[in-house]
Give the backbone structure.
Amino acid sequence: MKWGILWITVALLSGCATYKQDIDEGLSLAKEGDWQEAESVLEDVLDNPQDQLLYYLETGTLAQNQGDFVRSNALLEKADRLSDTFLKNSFSNRSWALLSNPRQGNYEGSGLERVYISYLKSLNYLALAEQANTAKEKLRLKDAALVETRRIDIKLNEIRAQTPSYQDLNDKKNQAFYLKALNWLGGFYTGGRDTDQFLYRDDAWGRYMEGLQYEISNEYDDARISYQKSAELYESGYAKQYDLSDLTAERAWLDTIRMMQKGGFSQDEIQQKSQAKLSAKMQDTLKQYHDGDAELVVLEHQGFIPAKSEMTLLLHADPRSYSLVLQPLHGGGRAEENDAFRWFTMAYADINPLNLIANYKVGGAWGSLTGIFTKRVILGRTVWQQLDDLNVDNLLEGQAIRVTVPYYHRFTLDKQQPKLNIPGSRNSSTNGSLRMTSLADIAFQEQLAIAQRDIYEGLIREMFRSWLAYQVSANVKDEGASLLLGLIGQIAVFASSSADTRNWLTLPAQVRLTREPLPPGDYSPDYNTNKKRFSLGKIALETNEIKVWNLRNPN
């Protein structure tokens, strides 16, 4: 009995505080632009073996925001090593996390996060090159930035090799009927959802930044190839998937054409590409570039990637259909409830034919309709008999089990149109800012893609923990003690259920780009957005120089 009480106590304590509650204070400080204090708070929160990767990601980002580029790169380099795609998971670590609490497992990061480690490091090296005192040191730092650019390319190629391309998705729509039927049948046990469309398969903005880095280093042919890859990605599906403007592809094509001009392509080739890919307005923008021009490139990293929340589901048995049924638990404010139900319907609800039939058998026509508020896991007679042999069916029929999964609340991205003001600029109006990527949408869709995995892992974990608590009480001979221990066990397991809501939260929600060609000279640019003004101070631009202004806007 004392061992049972000890286990129940550990189970209760393991889920008392959620990740979101722990880091809210640090994030609030970051959203106010107090980077140093935010780093201090997050250091304390993430100072444990399970969150080591997050520790380096968050502190490395906040160090960059403070202008401490050397320290930022040192921290992000440690994160890069930990997040290596080929790093083998510890079986014991993964198993313990699966069967106890997901926060007990090491945070591994996502494909997006691995790419943006190198992205931020490349920007650090560019900033350090600006501060270099000698031409040799500046060249060394620009080369280091190119190394990170090539790392981006390697990571994206690796992700691309493991996921279907936009062309693959289009081919799937046009495939033969019998292949569509096979995919339809295969979707019965995956919720009937094609999660491939939500996958992070490549990064048009990452490819664009490769082009920019190559252009800064005067490697124009490599820049052209990268800009063109970016343009083709925007066109083929990236812009549509992440709700970006079609102008993103045009911007990338414009820079591809500029590299063709610098790379010695014929005027006919350049003219054909320009007419095929650029609108009249974008062709006018292209004409603003002249030989010997410098250029100011503003990268506005705006807002913060959204934080995950926890959704509670109740699991109960349905012996009549040999299945388990999950449904969301009402709780929280109205907005939270609405978001949770929307996510549940989008990611989990019974929409495939087998589940609709099972719901109909149990509840008639109304049962089929109520399936949009439930998820049914059909086990079948054989598996149900195995659960019966383990007395799991008694456990499930006697109580509801709490299963917790991560999800995202609705979020709204800032849609304001920033304005870059450059006194002395030859153009009557500066080029507009263009939203080139939405990391918030990428993270949101990545979570949708793994939602089925999350719910099944949560189901297994909570069934196992509840079964252990049930076994502890069932093996106590004293009836009163058994009932008391059973009640304590149910409460402890229910209260300690949790989901893994960790992710890299100091990443920006979106990135906006402004590029302004300028004659060599001295300028004092400022950038205005949401009634907030950012100033770069006085800068001197030389012939053919590209100045990158990495602007972090927390609001």
Remarks:
- The radius of gyration is 27 Å.
- Residues 177-182, 184-190 have pLDDT under 50 and may be disordered.
- The chain has 22 helices and 13 strands.
